[in-house]
Amino acid sequence: MKLLSLTFVPALALALSGAAALAHSTLAQSEVTAGATTKLTVRVPHGCDGEATHTVELTLPDGVYNAKPMPKAGWELSTETGAYATPYMNHGAEMTEGVRKVTWSGGNLEDGWYDEFTVRAAIGPDVTPGTILYLPVMQYCANGTSDWTDITGADGVPNPAPNARVVAGATGQGHGHAHGQDHDAVAMTNDGSVVAGDLTLTGGFSRATLPNAPVGGGFLTIENAGAADRLVSASSDAAERVEIHEMAMDGDVMRMRKLSDGLPLPAGETVDLKPGGYHLMFMGLTGALVEGETLEVTLEFENAGEVVVPLLIGAPNAKGPGNGTMQHDHGHMADTGKE
């Protein structure tokens, strides 16, 4: 079995080793899909011989690319970039280098506490199914370290690196465009709706922007036929980051604010993301949004998981998937920045 240097710990291994495995730094994911984008979550269960952890360092191996770490409140985030052993195609653009190491520092994770550190990344389509990816982790404390860097795969080593097994992608994956959806739970219907478990997502659209515009908007309808869920985050290759926002009247002024805790989706209800209300904000656009094209956004739900939704780009004043007009525009709103 081919080995690469990445840090994941299979759920099966945790189940077999019982409480002893909980003493190790592990990955929440036991499997990752070749050619797909996934969330890699390192679990840190303790400190260094009783001391609190102030720094967590994660090294990404060959076979993992286009990595984007998730910031943590109270921690400083830094990255180191380097060349890939093999270039990757990412939505038509060749990537020859990217983030290879992520460090969260300046925190205080007590020995008796637990926390998770997350990176979103793509798994190379050329990684052979059955490969074990190892992702070494270092914990730094005031007077010591916890070392999770052994990538031999040998039984009984005291410091195994977190690891995950690569599985084959579904038909059509392996070209740098897959997004890690659970194809058993997510499906697109004949009318273009996306169904993910109890959620049905319809009417996704965005608006065309000028070439140098820094931001754009995204809108859709989410129908929840099951238990309460929550839209916790969003991302897209079209922007540096995607935020969940709300626009509401504050006296006589329409103001916009970021929903840091995500957007609740009550059981049995439908929530509209639309101009003048809840919406997605594409911050730091990497290029103009062109009318008639389609923009893909990855939505992460608390229960339904990751879902990729296509947004049809309409006219600059579009009110829906077709072209239309509206009374308000972000250029006339006040962004309070309030949480």
UniProtKB/TrEMBL annotation:
Gene3D superfamilies: PCu(A)C copper chaperone, Uncharacterised protein YcnI-like PF07987, DUF1775
Signal peptide positions on this chain: 1-30
A family per Pfam: PCuAC
The keyword Signal appears for this protein: yes
InterPro entries in UniProt: LpqE-like, Lxx211020-like, PCuAC_sf, UCP037139, YcnI-copper_dom, YcnI-like_sf
Chain intervals for the UniProt region annotation (Disordered): 319-339
Keywords noted in UniProt: Signal
Protein name: DUF1775 domain-containing protein
Organism of origin: Psychromarinibacter halotolerans
Lineage: Bacteria, Pseudomonadati, Pseudomonadota, Alphaproteobacteria, Rhodobacterales
